[in-house]
Design brief:
By secondary structure, the chain is an alpha+beta fold. The protein folds into two domains: about 140 residues, Fructose-1,6-Bisphosphatase, Chain A, domain 1 (2-Layer Sandwich), CATH 3.30.540; about 110 residues, D-Maltodextrin-Binding Protein, domain 2 (3-Layer(aba) Sandwich), CATH 3.40.190. Helix content is about 40%, strand content about 25%. An eight-stranded mixed β-sheet has the order 2-1-3-4-5-6-7-8, sandwiched between helices. Strands 10-9-11-13-12 form a five-stranded mixed β-sheet, with helices on both faces. A hairpin with a 4-residue loop joins β6 and β7.
């Protein structure tokens, strides 16, 4: 695939992310939002997730009809060329009126992420990267923090109900013992984007799905950071452990996550 092909896909993905973000943002600001969130599997939030994903799917496949598509809500297929999408990452934040959520779109060829776009609509922040083309925020080139001292670092440690709480608590304890400040903000995709922009120094999670992770991992890689081999061992379909960080913190964080075994 040529650089021009990737540029075309990146440009289309950015435009679609903005359109999808406008839809999600309008729903977030609407008066009906929180009143209908927790009423069952057909609640308001589920409808918005599905509507945003449907828009993204339709736009991407109209532009690239030979590509396949997999979304968090409706699934899909994993072909050689596949778009992997989370229509709203940070759904708990969205449901509670917290403006920390995003749209995440990644393009993968032969299980290698080539394009990544994350859009945060309430802040109008568009994070974009293509392989070997660098990473940007609203057109400004991004770089990871470059921090070298774990005792000065801020690390986001994600967690989900797919794992019991005990391994997460143990991970946080190891990070704190190493001297890191640890936080959790409820959106893995945005957590990774913040590492790419140097707002935090690392994001780690013991298990995360590919639709939450792929775009942000490419952002970090193209911003000069280090990422683990997330797609190894079927990570595209089944998810995996994840670490993305500024390079000097790689060894100590990988040890804290037990990634060396």
């Amino acid at each position: 695939m040529t650089a021009r092909d990737l540029e075309d896909r990146l440009a289309v993905a950015c435009a679609i992310a903005r359109e999808a973000g406008a839809l999600a943002g309008e729903a977030f600001r609407g008066p009906q939002g929180r009143a209908h969130v927790f009423k069952g599997h057909q609640d308001y939030l589920s409808e918005i997730d599905a509507a945003v994903e449907r828009l993204i799917r339709e736009r991407l496949l109209a532009a690239f009809p030979k590509d396949s598509f997999f979304g968090e809500e409706a699934g899909g297929t994993f072909g050689r060329d596949v778009w992997v999408v989370d229509p709203i990452d940070g759904t708990a934040n969205f449901a509670r009126g917290i403006a920390h959520f995003c749209i995440s779109i990644a393009f993968v060829r032969d299980e290698k992420t080539e394009v990544g776009v994350i859009y945060q609509p309430t802040m109008d922040e568009l994070y974009a990267a293509r392989r070997n083309g660098g990473a940007s925020l609203n057109g400004r080139r991004m770089k990871v923090s470059g921090l070298t001292d774990i005792r000065q670092s801020t690390v986001e440690a994600g967690w989900s109900a797919r794992l019991p709480p005990e391994p997460y608590v143990a991970l946080v304890a190891r990070l704190l013992a190493a001297g890191a400040q640890v936080r959790r903000t409820g959106s893995g995709a945005l957590g990774l984007a913040y590492v790419a922009d140097g707002r935090s120094d690392a994001y780690c999670e013991l298990h995360i799905n590919s639709w939450d992770a792929l775009a942000g991992l490419l952002l970090i890689e193209e911003a000069g950071g280090w990422i683990n081999d997330f797609l190894a061992g079927g990570g595209l379909q089944r998810g995996n452990a994840l670490l993305g960080c500024t390079p000097a913190l790689r060894d100590i964080l990988a040890e804290a996550m037990d990634l060396r075994r």
